[in-house]
Design goal:
The complex is a heterodimer of chains A (about 375) and B (about 1150).
Chain A lengths: L1 E6 L4 E6 L6 E8 L5 H5 L7 E5 L3 E2 L19 E4 L1 E2 L12 H7 L4 E3 L3 H11 L2 E6 L15 H4 L5 E3 L9 E6 L4 H9 L3 E6 L18 H10 L4 E4 L10 H12 L4 E4 L1 H9 L3 E18 L5 E14 L4 E7 L5 E6 L4 E4 L14 H7 L3
Parallel strand pairs in A: 3-4, 4-6, 5-7, 6-8, 11-12, 11-13, 13-14, 14-19
Antiparallel strand pairs in A: 1-2, 1-9, 2-8, 3-9, 10-12, 15-16, 15-17, 17-18, 18-19
Chain B lengths: L5 E5 L11 H15 L3 E5 L15 E3 L5 H11 L3 E3 L4 H13 L2 H4 L3 E2 L4 H8 L1 H10 L7 E4 L2 H11 L3 E5 L9 E3 L2 H12 L5 E5 L5 E9 L5 E9 L12 E3 L6 H17 L4 E9 L5 H10 L10 H5 L1 H5 L11 E7 L4 H10 L3 H9 L26 E7 L20 E7 L2 H11 L19 H6 L5 H10 L4 H8 L3 H26 L1 H4 L7 H9 L4 H8 L3 H11 L4 E4 L13 E5 L14 E5 L10 H16 L3 E6 L14 E4 L4 H11 L3 E3 L5 H12 L9 H8 L1 H11 L6 E4 L2 H11 L3 E4 L10 E3 L2 H11 L8 E5 L5 E10 L2 E10 L12 E3 L6 H17 L4 E10 L2 E8 L6 H8 L3 H17 L1 H24 L3 E7 L20 E7 L2 H11 L9 E5 L1 H16 L5 E3 L1 H9 L5 E2 L11 H6 L5 E5 L8 H13 L4 E2 L2 H13 L10 H4 L1
Parallel strand pairs in B: 1-2, 1-4, 2-3, 4-5, 18-21, 19-20, 19-22, 20-21, 34-35, 34-37, 35-36, 37-38
Antiparallel strand pairs in B: 6-9, 7-8, 7-9, 10-11, 10-13, 11-12, 12-15, 13-14, 15-16, 17-18, 23-26, 24-25, 24-26, 27-28, 27-30, 28-29, 29-32, 30-31, 32-33
The chains are: A alpha/beta (about 375), B alpha/beta (about 1150).
Chain lengths: ~375, ~1150
């Protein structure tokens, strides 16, 4: 079956459908990572976006069991690839990519010249677009919505060693966290309490998003436990939409609790501390972004997935990392306190995990 | 630290199997990179055909052997500050290690740049390296090393068969192999231990995936992997023999990153500064139930990359986020702490200039300070992202070697490779198959597989034809799973190939249906636009599609144009389009709908490169292509190179103005020509492949620069050429084109035997043979050739004891503007590519030289030659005959250019463009022709005054080709060449022989002279040899003959006599380090005896001479010259 990708500039591209038979609108972005499509597709930061993968052959190793995904399901709105491979070969493959997309009701098109689409976005900046398969739909700008609220957890999840066993406790603000963030903490023996984006540990008001009846108990526990550190996760959309998280982090800063922000977390921390963010022309979505650590000779290859950047570094903070390609900010660190954040993904998945040490660096300072 | 101002770069010497053109690429980039930093470079490399030994690259060049003896002398003379060891393959590395171990580098204060020597030495010692990997927690296959056969057998017993035997310190896995039982292992180990002191016996990982990573690291510990690659062939087939794709296709993120991490960990542990290559074996079907066995077999050294602590902890299980790491089982197989064939491939596959960057890092630079040469915006500390797939296929020429085993496996036999780029696997794979230049149209060609063997056998025991065994098996309806079980090729690849087979099947049945109706609908309606596009997107050639539908390729081309189905030009930009790139690195694809670049139009000139290296066409044609591109700059033309060989310098990003990494097929050249619409196309500098395209390109209306394709045809077409020579009154050996055996016999009895038989349009003499009598002729024709009207056979009189002489020239509008004569050491009967060539000629009469030049002028005029010209002559008793004319640059062009100091390529390019100027400006043309004359005068003067001698010697790779007979004959067998300079013939020859692996005998000399003539003629040399006071060993008759003439020798029994003392026994014990085996070609009686001796010499790494003239010269050289007193002079001191 044929479908169409329509961009807001009026251009249209026909392609063969290999996903769900449904139309969808969103923001069209591209990612240049060559491996890890199951991880990317389940990355909540992609919410509301139609993803173009620049690597042309996609589907080659099928889709593994759910436990290997980065969240409970596909988060992208639609998928565009050049050459869909329907004959996967991998001992862990449970289904084809097409079957997965269909079961999760995500449309997908095979459009040969994904390079052309990429160049268009690179030149014009991120565009709104829609995949039209049946009925036409209206353009939709996901950045005008609070996407974080849509992907954040609705209950508190406690993992890791029990409280009081001498292990540190970290509160993870889930703004659309990739599963591997919690895992990177757990691997290091940390007790992780994953909380909703709008949760305020310093207030007794239960946030709206709490729908779990057991949450009150959890909440009490969280408030009772000593929190050694805060991690603000990655997530989709404009950081300014996550106003409640920003407010909470302001309190965190006042209390000087060690904090680590990841991706959207970098932007939220910057905003909470008085810095500012803005939209990038077409964002960074790849697994090969070089980031230079400030006043060092060290450069790290990082995974990235973001459309916004920190352009004003807050007072009392300094730049920690800078993108070697375009000079954009890749992380900030407090001049004195163990409060820091990175724009890239130290938890990787997909992509290189060369910066996983950031977790160690942070945890050593709890 | 002292500032590095002058650096010694070690090259890799002659091209050989396992060490080929890739090191010209890496050395050239390194030199370029150093020069940019203001560092003076001194290069040691006897390979005169390389680009790196050009004036525009290294500051000083030594055409001397890359071994510690010579390099020490060069160091003493040049006093460099630093040395680069990792850009000249294993040869340079081994030489560097020796220099280090002997304390030479320390003595002269030469710093090893880049990776510390300790790291290099560690990777070269298999058992120490295995321990090192264990120490850093990386898994290795259970193994142990042995220095004796008994030891090896014992280890194998412990590990259990099958086992893989690997030889340390060896090029391209020489002497390695898989053994399924004791007897096989014994054989492999015995052979390997004759080359190397130690062998590693390890668990054979049957049908594991083989994955490679290219790692770059700087001294600040910035570390990246530039590329990963997946072998389509399973482990057990050497990566140089495998079809390889980049990036990996069947690895998920976890596998990709786990192996990447391991590769980086290794690079860090070795303190790599520059580049290294890591190869892994990956279990394609890891299952938990296997994990116990896996752990046991691996002791505690293996590390399962699972976080079992968490897996077992209740807490983790209780969590909602039950994420778990993927299971994986892998082993580190090999590490090369230097640039390698794989790094050349990775460089071309990604556009990342690995060698260039590695050289900068060796000087201590930081990765973040090196700009990305491709984008010009970003920098080099990143990992390229590809938006295409790359397929590499090796090129073999095994059938050219009599007796060689066709099976491919763990040691290298291929002589070259091609790389293709596409946006579907099918597109890239079919392109690559065509690039091999073996007249294949694609993956589904029906190729004659081994007689009488089943398709399953073909899948189990791979040969160079396995691509076609796969498609044949699919046509025979074997399932993907079955083919996988037999071949170990991952189903992913098989499914893609099945897609090709299925599409063709559909089209053929459709074609048959349509053909029935064609009368009504006409040729243009045989295929819908959509179907045709689909076939092109899957990489089918026009000709193949035409074949499916019963029309010609040109018909399909017309149809394509009518439908506007044209390939699109895409850039390789290292970042998958994320940043605008200024790159000129291009490929064509049907999987797109836009061009990345605009055509160059009339400013452009297309230069056709050589395609894959093979026997008969090698790095020399890369030198000619590169020099042509550079020379075009002088005429303000933009060079557009088309080539598909990743080992070349011509496919480097900064050689041409535009590089199409593409097929050299007519279809693709025409596509590019029509897109670019250039001024013209040069077909005469890339060897025979481009030359063969001349006619069809002209027929398409393209402007072929230089000699007219009609005239090229008059030189290549045997009948036309014969007539031309007759008309010009130039003598040629009697010849005839016959279509029946009867005619052949009649011709031969008329001209008398011996005769030379061959088909027309050959490059290096496929099926060329000398027949000495009627039986011989009948046998060969019946056995190996089809003689019919469609396949006529050319027979010519073979002239014995004739000298072979070559004339290389450049002409302009039929007037020779410069020429040079060179002489072969071996008499006619040895292919010119295998001959030892001397310049200036030493034993050619002035009269003969005059005659040769005269004939050259006549032929150039008659064929209106503009550009390069090469003529091969036979000379006997002052009589001169022409045997072959090539209206293209010959393989001796780099040699003669570098020896005479006159760039024959530049002169050729001059001839192309001055011709045009003649038309426009008569004054200028007059001035130009005066200039040409001056060039001519300069040349003549120079040749008369050459106060040195240069010798070009062939490099053979017989050791790699199990079973191949190392005797020289009319078919070319050498894989490379060197050239050295000297004050006289003997000095130059001795240096050249040492540079291709020759040794001055110190232990004992074995002589076996077949026939009376050889005995008598070699006697004088044998007497000289006796003066060396080395033990002489000889076979029965030879010993008797020598004794009769007062030369004492020890009689050894022939191998097949199975008596002691036996030749084999003495070879095995290392008592012989020079073997001379001369046979009478006429008599085949002793053939198998002689063959086994020759083969044993090769298998025991004993220098072997089988040609009398060459053996005589060698004896003279070692008797007259003292190696310690050979002058050490650079190129500029001679020329």
């Amino acid at each position: 079956m044929l479908g169409k990708l329509t961009l807001e500039d009026g251009s249209q591209f026909e392609g063969t459908s290999f996903g769900a038979n449904k139309s969808i609108a969103g923001e069209v972005v591209f990612s240049t990572g060559m491996v890890g499509y199951p991880e990317s597709l389940t990355d909540s930061s992609y919410l509301g976006q139609i993803l173009i993968l620049t690597y042309p052959l996609i589907g080659s190793y099928g889709v593994p069991d759910k436990k290997y995904w980065e969240s409970y399901g596909i988060k992208i709105s639609g998928l565009i690839v050049s050459n869909y491979i329907d004959t996967p070969s991998h001992f862990q493959s449970k289904q084809t990519l097409s079957a997965w997309l269909k079961s999760e009701k995500i449309p997908a098109l095979e459009i040969t010249d994904t390079r052309f689409l990429t160049q268009k976005i690179r030149t014009k900046g991120t565009l709104l677009g829609k995949i039209v398969l049946k009925d036409d739909v209206k353009f939709y700008d996901p950045n005008k919505e609070n996407l974080v609220a849509k992907v954040s957890t609705q209950k508190i999840i406690v993992q890791g060693p029990p409280a009081g066993g001498g292990k540190k406790t970290v509160l993870l603000f889930d703004c659309g966290a990739k599963g591997n963030i919690a895992k990177c903490l757990l691997k290091r023996g940390i007790r992780v309490m994953t909380v909703p984006w709008d949760f305020d540990p310093f207030s007794s008001v239960i946030p709206n998003s709490f729908r779990d009846p057991g949450s009150n108990e959890m909440l009490k526990q969280v408030q009772h436990d000593k929190i050694d550190g805060i991690v603000i996760s990655n997530g989709p959309g404009d950081p300014k939409m996550a106003d409640k998280t920003i407010q909470t982090i302001k309190k965190v800063l006042q209390r000087r609790i060690p904090t680590l922000g990841v991706c959207l977390g970098n932007q939220i921390l910057a905003l909470a501390a008085g810095g500012d963010t803005r939209k990038l022309k077409f964002g960074h979505r790849s697994q090969n972004q070089p980031c230079i650590m400030e006043s060092s000779k060290k450069c790290f290859i990082t995974t990235q997935n973001h459309g916004f950047e920190v352009y004003k570094i807050p007072k009392d903070f300094k730049s920690w990392f800078t993108n070697a390609n375009d000079g954009s900010n890749e992380g900030i660190i407090h001049n004195k306190l163990p409060i820091m954040s990175v724009q890239f993904h130290p938890e990787a998945n997909p992509g290189p995990n060369d910066t996983e040490w950031v977790f160690d660096y942070f945890l050593e300072r709890l | 630290m002292r500032k590095i101002k002058k650096v010694l770069v070690l090259g890799s010497g002659a091209l050989k199997i396992g060490e080929a053109g890739e090191f010209d690429y890496s050395g050239s980039q390194a030199i370029k990179s150093l020069k940019e930093e203001g560092v003076k470079t001194v290069l040691v490399n006897p390979n005169i055909a390389t680009v790196q030994t050009s004036k525009f690259l290294a500051d000083t060049v030594y055409f001397l052997p890359v071994d510690a003896f010579f390099v020490e002398k060069i160091i003493a003379k040049e006093k460099p500050d630093g040395i680069l060891l990792s850009f000249g393959g294993q040869t340079a590395l081994n030489c560097g290690i020796e220099l280090h171990k002997k304390g030479i580098l320390k003595k002269h204060g030469v710093k090893i740049l880049g990776t510390p020597i300790s790291g290099i030495i560690l990777t070269e010692d298999r058992s120490k390296f295995a321990k090192h990997l264990q120490k850093i927690g990386l898994p290795i296959p259970p193994s142990n090393s042995a220095t004796t056969i008994e030891g090896a057998l014992k280890i194998a017993q412990t590990i259990g068969y099958p086992v893989m035997a690997r030889a340390g310190f060896a090029l391209g896995g020489q002497g390695s192999g898989v053994a399924y039982h004791k007897k096989e292992l014994k054989k492999i180990v015995r052979r390997a231990l004759s080359f190397v002191p130690q062998i590693l016996i390890e668990k054979y990982l049957h049908h594991y995936k083989e994955i490679e990573y290219e790692v770059v690291r700087d001294k600040y510990d910035n570390c990246i992997t530039v590329c990963n690659m997946e072998n389509m062939d399973p482990l057990g087939i050497h990566t140089g023999e495998s079809i390889v794709v980049a990036p990996s296709q069947t690895l998920n993120n976890f596998e990709y990153q786990t192996l990447r991490n391991a590769a980086i960990k290794i690079a860090r542990s070795l303190n790599i500064i520059g580049e290294c290559n890591v190869q892994f074996a990956l279990n394609p079907k890891f299952e938990y139930r296997n994990s116990k066995q896996y752990q046991n077999s691996n002791d505690r050294n293996s590390k399962r990359f699972e976080h079992s602590d968490f897996e077992n902890s209740n807490l983790f299980r209780a969590s909602d986020l039950g994420f778990r790491d993927f299971p994986i089982e892998y082993y580190v197989i090999e590490v090369n702490a230097r640039l390698s064939r794989s790094s050349a491939l990775a460089s071309k596959a990604t556009g990342y200039p690995l060698a260039y960057v590695a050289a900068k890092l060796a000087l201590g630079k930081n990765l973040i300070d090196i700009k990305n040469k491709v984008t010009q915006i970003t920098q080099s500390c990143f990992e390229p992202s590809l938006d295409y797939i790359v397929v590499k296929i090796p090129r073999w020429d095994i059938e050219k070697f009599k007796g060689a085993d066709e099976k491919i496996g763990s040691s290298m036999k291929s002589v070259g490779e091609v790389m293709s780029i596409g946006r579907t696997f099918e597109e890239a794979y079919q392109k690559a198959i065509r690039m091999l230049d073996l007249d294949f149209e694609g993956a589904t060609d029906k190729v004659m597989l081994k007689n009488g063997k089943s398709i399953i056998h073909e899948l189990k025991e791979p040969t160079p034809k396995r691509m076609f065994a796969i498609s044949q098996a699919l046509r025979e309806n074997l399932s993907v799973e079955e083919i996988y079980q037999h071949s170990g090729i991952d189903p992913w690849f098989l499914h893609r190939i099945k897609n090709i087979v299925d599409e063709e099947r559909t089209e053929r049945s459709e074609g048959a249906r349509l053909r029935a109706r064609r009368d009504r609908r006409g040729k243009s309606n045989i295929l819908s636009k959509q179907r045709l596009l689909r076939l092109k997107q899957l990489g089918f050639s026009d000709r193949k599609i035409g074949d499916m539908l019963g029309v010609t390729g040109l018909d399909i081309r017309k149809l394509r144009k009518k439908f506007d189905i044209l390939p699109y030009v895409f850039q390789i930009d290292t970042l998958a389009g994320e940043f605008p790139a200024k790159t000129n690195y291009l490929y064509l694809t049907y999987n797109g709908f836009h061009h990345d670049v605009m055509p160059l139009k009339k400013r452009g000139v297309i230069v056709l490169g050589s395609g894959p290296y093979r026997i008969g066409s090698s790095v020399e044609f890369d030198w000619t292509s590169v020099n042509t591109a550079i020379s075009l700059k002088e005429y303000d033309r933009k060079s557009i190179i088309i080539n598909c060989n990743p080992e070349t310098v011509s496919t480097d990003y900064d050689i041409s103005d535009r590089l199409y990494f593409e097929e050299l097929t007519f279809e693709r050249i025409a596509d590019i020509y029509e897109f670019e619409n250039p001024e013209g196309i040069i077909v005469s500098v890339g060897g025979q492949t481009p030359n063969n395209r001349a006619k069809s390109l002209k027929a398409q209306g393209f402007n072929v620069l230089g000699t007219d394709p009609e005239d090229i045809d008059r030189a290549e077409n045997r009948s036309k050429f014969g007539k031309l020579l007759d008309k010009l009154n130039i003598s040629q050996p009697a010849w005839e084109k016959v279509t029946t055996l009867k005619q052949a016999i009649a011709f031969c009895s008329r001209v008398s035997y011996p005769v030379l038989i061959r088909p027309s349009f050959v490059l290096s003499g496929t099926l060329m043979r000398v027949c000495h009598n009627k039986d011989d002729l009948t046998h060969i024709i019946k056995q190996t050739a089809i003689v019919s009207k469609d396949y006529p056979l050319t027979i010519s009189k073979f002239i014995e004891d004739a000298k072979e002489i070559e004339l290389d020239a450049v002409a302009q509008n039929g007037i020779v503007i410069v020429n040079v004569i060179s002489e072969h050491i071996e008499n006619a009967g040895v292919h010119s590519g295998d001959a030892t060539i001397v310049l200036p000629p030493q034993k050619v009469y002035v009269d003969t030289q005059r005659k040769i030049e005269e004939i050259g002028r006549k032929i150039a005029l008659a064929l209106h030659v503009s550009g390069p010209l090469n003529i091969q002559f036979l000379a006997k008793e002052k009589e001169v005959q022409v045997i072959e004319v090539n209206l293209r640059a010959s393989r001796t062009f780099p040699f003669i250019s570098k020896v005479t100091g006159l760039d024959f390529i530049k002169l050729s390019v001059d001839s192309f463009f001055r011709k045009n100027q003649n038309i426009y400006s008569s004054t200028e043309s007059r001035a130009k022709s005066r200039e040409s004359l001056e060039v001519n005068n300069v040349t003549m003067k120079q040749f008369n005054n050459l106060n040195f001698v240069a010798v070009k010697a062939p490099q053979f790779s017989f050791a790699r080709l199990t079973g191949a007979d190392p005797i020289l004959h009319v078919e070319m067998a050498s894989t490379g060449e060197v050239a050295c300079f000297g004050e006289d013939l003997e000095e130059a020859f001795l240096k050249a022989e040492l540079a291709v692996g020759g040794k001055i005998p110190r232990k004992g000399i074995f002589i076996s002279l077949g026939g009376e003539e050889n005995k008598i003629k070699f006697l004088e040399s044998a007497m000289s040899l006796a003066k060396l006071n080395l033990p002489i060993f000889a076979t029965e008759k030879t010993a008797k003959f020598l004794r009769h003439h007062g030369i004492h020798s020890k009689h050894l029994y022939k191998i097949q006599e199975k008596k002691s003392p036996n030749v084999l026994e003495y070879f095995q014990k290392g008592k012989v380090d020079l073997a001379i085996n001369l046979v009478e070609t006429k008599f085949q009686k002793d053939e198998s005896d002689h063959y086994t001796i020759r083969r044993a010499a090769i298998d025991h790494n004993i220098p072997l001479f089988t040609n009398r003239q060459k053996a005589e010269l060698f004896v003279k050289a070692i008797v007259e010259k003292d190696i310690n007193n050979l002058p050490i002079k650079s190129w500029e001191e001679y020329v």
